[in-house]
Amino acid sequence: MSTIQHLSQRDDKKDQEVEMIEDKSGPDLTSLDARDTTPVVETCFEGYTLEETQAMSKKLVRSIDFRVLPILILLFLLNILDRNNIANAKVAGMATDLKFGNLDYNNAVLFLFIGYVGMQIPAGFILAKIPPTFFLTGAVCVWGVVSMCCGFIHTIPQMLALRFLVGVAEAPFFPGALLILSSFYTRKELAVRIAIMYSGNSLSNCFGGLLAAAIISGLQGKGGLAGWRWLFILEGAVTVFVGASIYFVLPSYPSKTKFFTEEQRRLAIWRTTQDANGEPDEGGEKSLIKGAKLVLKDWKIVMLIFQQMFISCSQSFSYFFPSIVKSLGYDSQKTLLLTAPPYLFAFMASVGVAISSSKMEERALHIAIPMLISTIGNALVIALPKSNVAGRYTAMFMLTLGSYCAFNLSFAWLASTIPRPRIKRAAALSLVNGLANASHFFSPYFFPESDAPKYIPGGSALAGFSFMVAVCAITIKYVLKGQNRKMDRLDSEDKPYTGSLEGVPKGYRFMT
């Protein structure tokens, strides 16, 4: 049994009286120096027993799972739906109607990410100053309106301008959502929740194809508009409605959560504080510039940025997946339907891998192994003969697997590697999300129409990036193990954490 510590303050004094109830087999803590400023890790919450604390915590997590997580999943689903619907519109006649040349579609994908990456740092500044919920819901409504406007364009420049604005509006969502999640969940809980939220990506692509097939076939010619135009209009309208609706129900931080009781708010803050070895995540430095400086001094984050960039590159097939599937020889309607099963498979695999990662408290192998499977899948798609439809379609399941399993775990790994302060974590999430997505400045050109139907250069590039993710994950694992050993040594010598370990609470150890 671990030691139970009760802290009580005496009147107006700041001195703390520490009572300890020890298991006979536990360490002797009675010699704790009163001058020791190391944060105290408590086993129990406000005098409750260990069993009561665990029961209260379980109930609280269940409440968060049902009240916060579903909202973020829905918003992320809409985020990806409005971002990727251009891929379905392309095979449904948009390219013909707008007279796209060889690289016009690739440019449209690029312009979205110019806006997306360019807005990351400004979005980070805003997230550091105002509640994430306010900013996120406003962004959702804006990108929904802009997406609707894509249904009324008639020229390629109009498409490029609107795709740029969609990227600007979508930029705050993912770092803001991760900031909210990391404020409610502990490290062990976070990976599964990010995986579940990120499942909105694969689910959106899965149902996006089915929904596109239904809208395009059902509304083709209605009101004098082509089916692909209705796709943008209807999906954008749903996004605006949902964005306006969730403002009143999505909390920003535990201390501001209305559906918690006062005791639950204190418990929620206590849980994340204890998860960071007793160092609170409230108050302190508010400048995002300060947070960015802390990030840039931490070379571990640079490695995670490269890993995330490689994952983003390996996932760039999603903007061309309908075109890749169409290389099997089916018409547009069947192609859109066939895009769904690989994404559904990726969704189920990503949740399973995240649960396994959480239970084993391991990150690197849970990223590396799926990415190696994706490496093989990409190679098979381009190596198998065009006549081998079943083999190539099976390989498409494999290529979707890795990046969707790795992406959410990589972000969870990042969040748990920056436990404190919150401003550093907010800056890191914005920087990593922005710089990782900078890979899309060149990845849209992996699949030009001139390389159809097998897209050999693009498939080869994706295989290479998938393999590099696996290499990065294993490298980071052993680097973090070295950092843990260094912290063990500094603790034994009673020395402070400096350099790349600055901001890490005493006694904290990185997941590998």
Instruction: Characterize the biggest β-sheet.
Output: 2 strands, antiparallel
CATH fold topology? Growth Hormone, Chain: A
Structural class: mainly alpha
Helix content range:
55-70%
Rough outline: globular
The secondary-structure element order is EEHHHHHHHHHHHHHHHHHHH
User: What fraction of the residues are assigned to beta strands by DSSP?
Assistant: under 5%
Just name the CATH architecture.
Answer: Up-down Bundle
- As laid out across the biggest beta sheet, the strand order is 1-2
Number of helices: 19
Overall number of domains: 1
Pfam family, one: MFS_1
GO molecular function, one term: transmembrane transporter activity
Membrane topology: Multi-pass membrane protein
Transmembrane segments: 64-81, 108-127, 134-154, 160-182, 194-216, 228-250, 301-320, 340-357, 364-384, 396-415, 427-447, 459-480
Walkthrough of the structure:
With 512 residues, this protein is mostly helical. The protein has one domain: MFS general substrate transporter like domains (Growth Hormone, Chain: A), CATH 1.20.1250.20. It contains 19 helices and two strands. Strands 1-2 form a two-stranded antiparallel ribbon. Helix 15 (340-360) runs parallel beside helix 17 (389-417). The longest helix has 37 residues, at 456-492. The protein is globular. Residues 1-40 and 281-285 have low confidence and may be disordered.
